[in-house]
Amino acid sequence: MVRGGSAAQEGDQAMSLAPQVLMYATAVCPFCIRAEQLLRARGVVEIEKVRIDLDPARRSEMLTRTAKRTVPQIYIGETHVGGCDELIALDRAGRLLPLLAGEGA
Ligand SMILES: N[C@@H](CCC(=O)N[C@@H](CS)C(=O)NCC(=O)O)C(=O)O
Asked: pTM for the whole thing?
């Protein structure tokens, strides 16, 4: 069973290849909302949201893992995409859907 996944992919086998989508976020964050909208528009059903405003340990985790202080910070599988701007750039470059499909960036 996959935690991430794209609705564009049909069938259990395809779903099992879809990487997890994880987003470090805060409650009040327009960039997080925009990023989520784009991910949803590209068919992502499940996003693991890590609320760093509620959990200082997870904030430290984000800082250590990404070396970034702003939210969102988005992971698709093991790939650190970055923030909202980077997500949009990836999409415009035609590399977001392949990444969501587990085909690498
Ligand atoms: N260019 C970034 C901007 C992200 C950003 O500014 N996020 C705000 C919250 S919406 C933030 O983390 N502000 C805290 C800070 O700048 O330290 C992106 O596209 O993700």
From this structure: 0.88
* In the chain, domain spans: 12-100
Atom of ligand 1 nearest to the CA of 88: 19
Instruction: Give the C-alpha distances (Å, rounded to integers) separating 15 from 48, 66, 101.
Output: 16, 27, 9
- CATH class for domain 12-100? alpha beta
Ligand 1, residues 28, 50, 53, 71: which to mutate, most atoms within 8 A of Cβ? 71
What confidence tens digit (pLDDT) does each residue in 34-63 have? 999 999 999 999 999 999 999 999 999 999
User: How do beta strands 48-51 and 73-76 pair?
Assistant: unpaired
3-state secondary structure at position 33? helix
Cα–Cα nearest to 81, from 9, 21, 11: 21
- Beta carbons of 63 and 55 less than 8 angstroms apart: no
